[in-house]
Amino acid sequence: MRPIARVMLAAASGLFLVTPGPAVAAPAVSHAQLPTMSAEPNGIQAPFAELADGNTGAVRWSRQPNTRAPMGSITKVMTALVVLEAGNLDRAITVPQAIIAYDRKYDGSTAGLVPGEVLTARQLLYAMMLPSGCDAAYTLAEAYGPGQAAFIAEMNATAARLGLTNTHFTDPSGLPAPTGHATYSTPADLVKLGMHAMAQPVFRDIVRAQSYHQPAGPANRDHVWRTTNLLLRDYPGTVGIKTGSTDAAGTCLLFETVRAGQRLIGVVLHSSPTSDAVAESDARNMLDWGFGPILSLIPIP
Fold first, then answer.
1. What does the mean pLDDT of the chain come to?
2. Strands (DSSP E) found in 102-210
3. How far is CA 128 from CA 24, 76, 164, 298, in A?
4. In angstroms, rounded to a whole number, what is the distance separating the alpha carbons of residues 223 and 219?
5. Cβ-count burial of 106 within 10 angstroms (0-12 exposed, 13-18 middle, 19+ buried)?
6. By CB neighbour count within 10 A (0-12 exposed, 13-18 middle, 19+ buried), where does 99 fall?
7. Considering 13, 30, 105, 132, which one is annotated as catalytic?
8. What confidence score (pLDDT) does residue 157 get?
9. DSSP structural state of residue 250
């Protein structure tokens, strides 16, 4: 007689559900104990941090969320947002001679741009967001201000419009101009800024890219730009956003990851004086905690 008992394995819980019928031998089951969720993420080095639901903005966990601190090149998220809201991303922009003195003065990271070469605003956004090119940020500010002062004023006006009351910019790259603490924000404000920026499709496409190749053209050199955000490579489901680092800011990371439809966005500031790996580890620990013992273990291609 064909048995009518149906045995269903609940993989996540390790339970068997058996419908009524003739007794059948149940297969041996390994009742592996899933890790339990702690009250807060463990091992976070950053003194300033926040993790939130990326769909609603509801805060999941925070540490000094409203304390002002420098954030280095996370500033470039606002620079990109101002450019995107202005539009005309296919306009041709000539890289100015002044990038040389600008980068040398502050020892800023560059995208290898050369004064006189011509790139589109869209190409310059990749040059700014992936390798964290301060030369690209300066070039975009010059073109869209026009000029540094006008562009920085627009950055602060946008911050005010978005309700980022504890955020102020003095430089389009987040460099220590004039001092290391002149440009500042808070974890709470940066999560809001990140959510707003990630709502822009072009921005999302840029910051989720691990690399971008710009072939040589009539007026530009060949460029290959690679992201400084190691979380994109190391933590499956990550879709952005931006690293930051200065002497005053230490290592910082604004990040977003999606798993099984659940979106988490977070930020860590001054995880370490110099180590990007510590900031990445902070983000991983926060994400593992936020997704919980099941989603954090789901294999994602």
1. 89
2. 118-120
3. 64, 7, 22, 32
4. 12
5. middle
6. buried
7. 132
8. 98
9. E
Per the annotation, the verdict on 132 as an active-site residue is yes
Residues shown for the chain: 301
pLDDT band at 36 (very low <50, low <70, confident <90, very high): low
Catalytic residue flag (residue 76): yes
Catalytic, out of 76, 109, 192, 242: 76
> What DSSP string describes 130-157?
SS--HHHHHHHHHHHTTSHHHHHHHHHH
Q: Model confidence at 37, in pLDDT bands (50, 70, 90)?
A: low
Task: Decide if 251 contacts 217 (C-beta within 8 A).
Answer: no
Of 13, 30, 38, 73, which residue is the catalytic one? 73
Structure tokens at 287: 């994400």
Calpha distance 79→74 (Å, rounded)? 9
The backbone torsions φ and ψ at residue 230, rounded to the nearest 5 degrees and listed phi first, read -65, -20
pTM above 0.85, yes or no: yes
Burial 264-279 (b: 16+ CB within 10 A, else e): bbbbbbbbbeeebebb
